[in-house]
């Protein structure tokens, strides 16, 4: 169990205190890609077990979250191919059915400080307001939102909507799953199960939107009805339910884009 480490000049290499020789000055060097370690004090060396990488990344992430840096380093997903972050990309992005093309299309980057995917959220002026951070490894941390921003004042992906209907979802991955399946921007995300006054005014004021579909997680019937009641005086509304899947992102992960698309086309009565 590693409690603390120092980063060396090599991003793939860290230093910890050697558990073998009672070292207190971080003499044990670990290459987290090659999984090799060596203590320069007592020459203890060998190959580390697989989950060390997760352990190190969790610690690294927790350190960075506490710092809340403004100058995070973000790079395209493609650029981390072959590095120690790739396993996380596979789990969080590829295994959910998303592609490199999707990442490019939606401006999604890898945050090297937080070891996370950075999903940009735009304001009404088409400027990036903030990023939602989706962690690549740690199990007790999933998402991070900036602490100085009220996310309920934003609707994820609303800047790209230009059709005559919109589908409301809870999370950014739900909206993304629907949009990449449709090959068209029809879904937005609320960042939760509630529709704020600000979010509601975006939807009500936007010309051209005739119908609003509410597609929250399967467990959110009550919240769906509350949103429908709010919107009903202004727009035609309909709630979309899933029988088996937890949410749109899980639907795509388990059944694929084609089946999600066909299901939604039926629901929105949308002919392509
Ligand atoms: Zn040692």
Secondary structure topology:
Blueprint: E1 6-7, E2 13-16, E3 28-31, E4 36-39, E5 45-47, H1 52-67, E6 74-76, H2 86-92, H3 100-105, E7 109-111, E8 116-122, E9 128-135, E10 143-144, E11 165-169, H4 172-182, E12 187-189, H5 197-205, E13 211-214, H6 221-231, E14 236-239, H7 248-255, H8 257-268
Parallel strand pairs: 11-12, 11-13, 13-14
Antiparallel strand pairs: 1-2, 2-3, 3-4, 4-5, 6-7, 7-8, 8-9, 9-10
Helix pairs in contact: 4-7, 4-8, 7-8
Bound molecules: zinc ion.
Overview of this structure, please?
There is one protein chain. The protein has 272 residues and is of the alpha+beta class. It has three domains: 6-48, no CATH class; 73-149, DNA primase DNAg catalytic core, N-terminal domain (Alpha-Beta Complex), CATH 3.90.980; 155-272, Dna Topoisomerase Vi A Subunit, Chain: A, domain 2, CATH 3.40.1360. The protein has eight helices and 14 strands. The chain has helices spanning 52-67, 86-92, 100-105, 172-182, 197-205, 221-231, 248-255, 257-268; strands at 6-7, 13-16, 28-31, 36-39, 45-47, 74-76, 109-111, 116-122, 128-135, 143-144, 165-169, 187-189, 211-214, 236-239. The strands form three sheets. It has a five-stranded antiparallel beta sheet, with no helix packed on it. A five-stranded antiparallel beta sheet has the order 6-7-8-9-10, covered by helices on one side. Strand 9 and strand 10 form a beta hairpin. Helix 4 packs across helix 7 (248-255), helix 4 (172-182) packs across helix 8 and helix 7 (248-255) packs across helix 8. The longest helix is centred in the N-terminal third of the chain and has 16 residues, at 52-67. 32% of the residues are buried. The mean pLDDT is 89. It binds zinc ion. The site of zinc ion has 10 residues, from loops.
